[in-house]
Amino acid sequence: DEVPSVKGIPFIQKIHNVEAIEKMYDEFEVRDKDVIIMTYPKSGTHWMIDIISLIYSNGDPSWIKSVPAWKRFPWIEMKNGFELIKNKEDPRFLTSHLPVHLFPKSYFSSKAKMIYIARNPRDVIVSYYHFINPFALDSSWSAFENFFESFLRGNVVYGSWFDHIKGWLSMRNSEKFLFLTYEELHQDLKVSVEKICRFLRKKLSEEEISSVLENASFQVMEKHRLENNESIEYLRRNQVVLMRKGICGEWKNYFTVAQMETFNKLYQEKMEGLDQDLFPWNQC
Ligand code: A3P
Known about the structure:
The chain is α/β, with parallel strands linked by helices.
């Protein structure tokens, strides 16, 4: 099968609304009250979806327990998201993994708020490797070294990690854009949640914040996933694991010394000139 792509970015025919992605760039109307989660895949998207769901419900997890993430925060570029979004009332909660050059252009002139989560690309490779295997566009991806090579070339679904982060970082001085990292959430979830509350102008009591933290823990989230039927039939059938380990530094169990060196060299080349303090993963 031919792999469909839009402006150089590969997608998956079965799950993406490939025909609509290019049209959406011009036609999709982002509203001022929209709250958008933007990530490269496997960077903590579902974690952020649950955190923001909890912030808007003042820490009450019942919404999470009864509605799967893809219905609470539909992905604008997915087949199952498109219809849902049309009928939503403000404030709409949206998710996307699109690179900046494919994201609806109306966002840039709107007041919509966007939270971007970035994760150590080394851990993203490992998480993505486990996630993508069942979808494999390329059967050679069942071997880690092949997926690793494709990832470095940007020849994977949603394209290059480097282009994604560099593209979106151009927004970082905008007050409607919040840049956070997976590693930061790990290090101090409370501080991050408070930052997100300020950004979204939501005032929560100490008790409500505690409930957000409790319900956004890995273990409790896993439990909710089973209750709300997040592991939808399709994912289950294909053995897609949405939550594997949820740790920092798992790449060390996968990369060979040679792969580590190759990766570091490319990383330095691609990330040169960016403020390295933005990326706490360089310590882990
Ligand atoms: P691993 O595959 O390394 O376990 P996304 O939601 O963007 O697909 O990202 C999935 C990754 O986020 C998975 O990483 C998953 O375990 C991790 N994750 C999800 N919820 C988490 C939580 N509450 N705490 C830590 N990691 C979490």
